[in-house]
Design goal:
single chain; mainly alpha; 2 domains; 72% helix
Length: 134
């Protein structure tokens, strides 16, 4: 388990000074990595991208609700990947688009603690209201 994930999981029982030491160590490791000089073009591109977003790479250390990984996003995509593999994909672009929109809506509703059917119902109701007002 990477150090930053372990820190996030153990954060509450740790003393503030201990958390600060871990954060300092992680920032030092990041600084060392960003000072590397990759020879491969792909490595240079990655380094350039990370240098641009450097201030945000360890944001989860200071903003506790921010997760240290993107696992939730990857798990949300997993269902769509399995569906696509099982069904051999979509036969038309509009079906793929509709599926993506419904999955996005259901996943967003789930994250907000709303049942899938309620989320779809709310979205359709708001679309009808918008159409009537527009």
């Amino acid at each position: 388990m990477p150090a930053w994930v372990a820190l996030q999981r153990r954060r509450h029982p740790l003393a503030a000074s201990t958390v600060a030491q871990y954060c300092a160590r992680l920032r030092g490791s990041l600084r060392e990595m960003l000072n590397l000089k990759p020879k491969a073009l792909e490595g240079q591109r990655l380094l350039k991208r990370y240098q641009k977003i450097r201030a945000h790479l360890l944001l989860f250390l200071t903003d506790e609700p921010i997760p240290p990984t993107n696992n939730a996003s990857e798990q949300a995509l997993r269902w769509s990947v399995v569906f696509r593999k099982v069904t051999n994909g979509f036969r038309s672009d509009w079906r793929a688009e509709l599926f993506a929109q419904v999955r996005s809506l259901v996943n967003t509703a789930k994250r907000q603690g709303i049942l899938a059917l309620d989320g779809i119902s709310r979205a359709l109701t708001s679309l009808q209201t918008d159409c009537l007002l527009g």
